Structure formats: structure tokens, C-alpha cells
């Protein structure tokens, strides 16, 4: 005898319309901020302007003596802060919808609902943490050397927020669209790899930050890990290649069909590890913005460049193995 499917709550249609409206508004805010952020990044390049008496002067007054090819990381992070916060706003209606629409009443799917809700809640916390940290970097007045490592640490919650939101969608797809769950998992991993790439991209500009006084900079620069533009670009490429390996391995494992079915314990580990990663990255990034008491600026270090990007990449690997 065929079972009659349960009727959805009366308010489900109204809630769906409300969620769709919130999503449209948030997407509009994201698009507007993305346009303003792109124009801000373009305007921060240092250009040389030739005056009527054929003398050149720099537009930027606080930048080192660099003729061209310079970006201001402070303005970039300040523009990305509202975009990062909007990710958390997108997670809120998804959480509400998840708890109001009745799932399939099966024991097998109970851990799935808990996993989806946990990932969305972590995404909300991560996006707000990253947005506040990026706004703090945008408030810096001087291009100090600690801004790049601080940005790398604060980028951890940003990337985790994106990956966990898409991971929650994969969990829901495993319930309602089981044939497409692998596709959703690969989308989450691809988004994480792109986030790791943009994290490593910040290394390319760390060479130009630091003391603005020529005499002080000449004494300070030989003590730093990266001293030239060529070294910065080379290490940015190496960090990118090394960091995408774990995440790419997770995609291969997912395509091969290997993995584990989520249980109550694995859900706790997956959500808990994401939360720990977000809090450690956010707090460490804020601490990294502190100005040294002895006046000696501390630039980017190798373990900071590799540690931040690899931490995110290994979490993506863990996610690909444990997602349903």
C-alpha cells in the first residue's frame, strides 16, 4: 500500500518567498560592494603623473618609492569586509528554512540535518569574524609589515564560511537530490581552492610593506623572509601549489566514491574542527595586527604563509571525506 506524502506546513510557501526576497536583497548588496571594491583596488595602484614642468610625483604619499605595480591591502580588505559579512546574512535564512521545513522522518537522515545546521551556523560565525577583522585592517593608517600575515589569518574564517555554506548545500542535496550530491561536493571544494588561491595571492605584495624611512628600511629589510618583488611572486606561486594539493586530493577521493557516512560523532568533529579553525584564525589575525612595542616591524614568516593556506586546504580534504 502506497504511503501518502505528508503535507507541508501552510506557511512553507510564505517562508520560501520571504527567504527568496532576503536572498535577492543580499545578492544585490554583494554585487554593489564587489563593484566598489574592484574600483577601489584599481584606484590604489600607484601611478606616476607628469606635471607641466616635466616633473613626476606620486599620487600616494604614504607608499614607498615604487614607480608602479603597487596595491594597498588596507583598502582592499576594507572593501571586502561587507561582502564577507553578507555571507553570514545568507546563512541566516537558510538556517531558518532548515528548521521550519520538515525533513524526511528517517533515522538515517537525522545526522544529515544536524550537520547541515551546524555548518551553516559555523559559516555565520566565520563570516562575521572575518568581516570584523578585515574592517580592523582597513582602519590601519600606516602600511606596516604585519598587515599581510594578519590578512592571511583573517582570511581563514572567510574561506571557511564559503566552504561550509556550500558544504551544507551538499548535505541537503544528499537528502533531496542524492544523484547530484557529488556535484555539490566538488563545487564546495572548488570554492575552497579558489579561496586558498586568493589567500596566497596576498603574499605577492608583502615585499613593499614595512618602514617608510629609507634608512630604517635598509636596515630592516635584510632581516625579513621576503625582500624583493621577485621573491614575493615566486613564494606566492609555491605556496599556492603546495596548498591546493590536499584540497585537490579530496576532490579526487570524492570522484572515486570513497568516503564515510556521517554519524553523530563525525558530525561533531566536522563542525567542531571548523569552529576551532575559525576562532583560531580570527583571534590570531587580530593579535597579528598589534603594533610592536620595540618599534621593529615583524613581516610575513614562512610558517604563517604555509600554515594558514594549508590549514584551510586540509579542512577541505576532511570535508570531502566526511560529507555524505
Task: Summarize the entry for a quick read.
The protein has 324 residues and is an all-alpha fold. The chain has one domain (71-322).
Low-confidence segments, given as residue ranges, are 1-20, 33-64
Structural category is mainly alpha
Task: Estimate the mean pLDDT confidence.
Answer: 76
Q: Strands of the largest sheet, in order across it?
A: 1-2
Portion of residues in beta strands equals under 5%
Distance between the termini: 30 Å
Shape descriptor reads elongated
Helix content: 55-70%
Q: What's the number of structural domains? A: 1
The helix tally amounts to 9
Radius of gyration: 23 Å
- For the report, how would you describe the main beta sheet? 2 strands, antiparallel
Q: What string, H for helix and E for strand, traces the elements in order?
A: HEEHHHHHHHH
Strand tally: 2
Structure, described:
It contains nine helices and two strands, in the order H-E-E-H-H-H-H-H-H-H-H. With 324 residues, it is mostly helical. The chain has one domain (71-322). It has a two-stranded antiparallel ribbon. Helix 2 (73-100) runs antiparallel to helix 3.
Q: How would you describe this structure in keywords?
A:
324 residues, mainly alpha, two-stranded antiparallel ribbon, 9 helices, elongated, disordered N terminus
